[in-house]
What we know:
- The complex is a heterodimer of chains A (323) and B (266).
- With 323 residues, chain A is α/β, with parallel strands linked by helices.
- Chain A has 2 domains: 4-228, Rossmann fold; 235-319, Alpha-Beta Plaits.
- Chain A is built from 11 helices and 14 strands.
- Chain A has helices at residues 53-60, 82-88, 105-115, 120-133, 149-160, 179-194, 206-212, 230-234, 252-260, 289-295, 311-319; strands at residues 4-17, 23-37, 42-46, 68-73, 76-77, 89-93, 167-171, 198-202, 215-220, 223-228, 241-248, 264-272, 275-282, 300-307.
- In chain A, the strands form 3 sheets. Chain A has a 6-stranded mixed β-sheet with strand order 6-7-8-3-9-10, sandwiched between helices.
- In chain A, helix 3 (105-115) crosses helix 4.
- Chain B is mostly helical and 266 residues long.
- Chain B is built from 11 helices and no strands.
- The interface between A and B is medium-sized, with 34 and 28 residues.
Amino acid sequence: MNAIEVEHLRRVYRAQIGVFNRSIKEVVAVDDISFDVKQGELFGLLGPNGAGKTTTIKMLTTLLIPTGGSASIAGFDAVKQATDVRRRIGFIFGGERGLYWRLSGDDNLRYFASLYGVDPAVSKKRIPYLMELVGLKGRGNERVGGYSRGMKQRLHVARTLLHDPDILFLDEPTIGLDPVGAREFRSVILNLQSQKKTILLTTHYMFEADALSDRIAIINKGCVIALDTPGGLKQHVSDLSVVEVETFGTSEEALGKLRKLPFVDALSVEDREQKQMLLIQTTRGAEAVPDVMNALEGQRVGSVIVREPTLEDAYVRLVGGAA
Amino acid sequence: MNTIIKNTRLFWQGTLLSYRALFAWLRPVTYMASKIIMPLAQMFFFVFLGTYASGGKNASFFVIGNAIQITSISGIFGVTMSVGGDRDAGTLPYLFGTPANRFMIFFGRAFMHVIDGAIGVVIALTWGVLLMGLDLSRTDMPALGLTILITTFSTCGLGLLMGCLSLLTANVMFVNNFVYFSLLIFSGANVAIESLPAWMQVVSNILPLTRGIAASRALVGGASLNDILPLLITELGIGLIYGFVGYVLFAWFETQAKQRGTLETV
């Protein structure tokens, strides 16, 4: 039996518009999503903002009722057997909210342990264990309001493990964390993976998904557009190379010229403080560099690198977020 | 049996921890102000205004009315904060994502405020005795204690209903203030119910506090528990009805939020 089975899941939001001339506007957040997650698997769910990732997780965690399709979690229907599902899952939505800031870390965990019906004798042992697991040993008596963002997010992990769930849903758990905090958080996720927990992870950080996931589904506009291992997804761009050009204040005109080059498969621009990094996907590899430099004539250009494609490049090609 | 133990534990832990977690006045200075200064100010205002208008011999009418009405500070504002606080803390998805018994969560939020409200009434009555000449020499004190507890409970029932409204709107404090000040009139705390227009008397009769204040005045005047028992039973019933309607609204809110996807956006 798969830990998670999702079949043709669909969710439409209806919003009322106007005060006097009221009309209903429908927004399709999830159109038709199907996938399975095996027991003990770490499954990544990637997609641009508004693709339907969080809506999908809300439906799988019983917090949102689907408009169509079905989802089975640990063999239980996410709508009809919601209470059974809740006993077997833990979930985190990114960010630091969702904790009682006036209470200490330990008291937060005590309260949620009672909400999950954890025996006090068990929670008495489990709370210190979990605080140590997430790197908060010795900080349990402090008010959560005084915790850093990273500490709050790690406390969320401890909260979600209180009832020892088999299946975890982590929705952008590293969002807003500094690089050190994010790395520590990933080590916690790897630790959970080693405990054979089934994990469904959404993230915007491609290297994170690449490093952690057994399989990844990429969703866009509410549909799964690719589902494979990280290596399998990279095969989508195996014919490509990526030319990385460091520039300073590149004009829109120059970017337009680049986009018109016939061998440019996709172009994305990353702002890095005062400079930009142009990521040009091309089938011509290093041979494309002279024409790229011609297109950028008159612009301040720093380093130029030609490299193999990454998961991010595969993602960019699949979701079409480029040229 | 196991379920009963779990739910009892949930009720008590939820009661204590949610009180500390969500009650915004739980800082020593603001708490003391809400428990000592505000009741004193309210009592001074209405007792002196009332006795100026109607004569000094009526002081106990205003002292008892306002001392009992003080319970709505905990019953209305406190309970609303405890129920609606999850909305501000962003904990609603995590609360509704647990398998916990909703009934226990809901009523657990009010329990400490029943105790808190009763303590507030005792402090206000003490002010009445020390500063405003309230005479309790003929009062059946255990019966008065029971009356205070039941009245506080029924007011918390209304507070639970108001708390549910706070899950639906960010402007519930406006409604709370309206209800609090309405109770000053409609509950008979400062105006005899019989002197109110007929429609206002109808409203008075369906509100908590009204019978609790009447029973307290009767007890201070020398009545026995038997004399006021019908008032107490009705007061208790009204509190249960408000609490039950609040719980139905709470359950309805959860279902609606999951159907409409408004759990975080309310």
